[in-house]
Amino acid sequence: MEVKEQDLENLQVQLSPEEYVQMLLPLKDALDILSGKWKLQIIFSLKFGRKRFKEIQRAIPGISPKMLSKELKELEINELAQRFVYDTKPITVEYELTDYGQSLKPVVTELYKWGAAHRKRIIGRG
Amino acid sequence: MEVKEQDLENLQVQLSPEEYVQMLLPLKDALDILSGKWKLQIIFSLKFGRKRFKEIQRAIPGISPKMLSKELKELEINELAQRFVYDTKPITVEYELTDYGQSLKPVVTELYKWGAAHRKRIIGRG
DNA sequence: CGGCATCCGGCGGGATACTG
DNA sequence: CAGTATCCCGCCGGATGCCG
Fold it and tell me: Nearest nucleotide by C1' from A56 CA?
């Protein structure tokens, strides 16, 4: 089965249970890579250009060096971020989104937009 | 500080560290509600209409009743899903996205699209 | 059927200290 | 600076059983 993207928003056809499961696979793949507290925040913070390790850490309150290191490594493995080492004293390390990582911008942007709308909604109740 | 959405994609202005932190808040809010393995899968499975508890469970391989119940409750608290109980024998319970929950469709769609592209990329390597 | 209560084991991830 | 190593606690979440 193949579901065309333009049909996704308002799909009316009847699908079998197995077809539902099939349709979930791309979403699961994305979540396997991106879910968790930190990864999308890191990607967001790298959207605006190359950053040093400590800059990322400062940009994301609450993340420990251990977590940041682990998450960046996973982003590297999935070819979403790239690591650059400079032999200065002390050592300098920078991270940057790969072209492939840039392809996540629409995802992050949608999430950001929804979060912003949600904030307004919540604050509006005060 | 206020960042206009249309500037988000390719922001060039220099931001202070504090401004970066501020910009992350909407994303954090969204992640607080949506992050984790299951929530977006549940929302995805409800995109196509009202479903019974067991239907959702069948649509999402690997989720236990306990998890599903807990996650649905959290979606309810955040007014993203609504619960309908019917006094049949045995009892029937259905879930449906609220109008507010529907506002997540673009998020889920972007994630789905990215996941689909990622699948192709991975499979293409063999 | 759609849950909740209880038990329990594993590991995610914080805190702290250390290194090239 | 950019991490690693170690310790260790908490809670996430699976398995099972029960209930309206």
Answer: D2
- Give, as ranges, the nucleotides of chain D with any atom within 7 Å of a protein CB: 1-6, 13-17, 20
Quickly count: other Cβ atoms within 10 Å of residue A122's Cβ.
Answer: 11
The pTM score is 0.92
CA gyration radius for chain B? 18
Span B69-79, pLDDT tens digits:
999 999 999 99
CA of A25 to C1' of D8 (A): 37
- Partners of B31 on chain A (C-beta within 8 Å) are 37, 40-41, 111, 115
Instruction: Domain B37-124: state its class.
Output: mainly alpha
Per-residue model confidence as pLDDT tens digits over A29-66: 999 999 999 999 999 999 999 999 999 999 999 999 99
Structure tokens at A79: 């070819």
Report d(CA B18, CA A124) in Å as an integer. 24
- Coil, strand or helix: which one is A75? helix
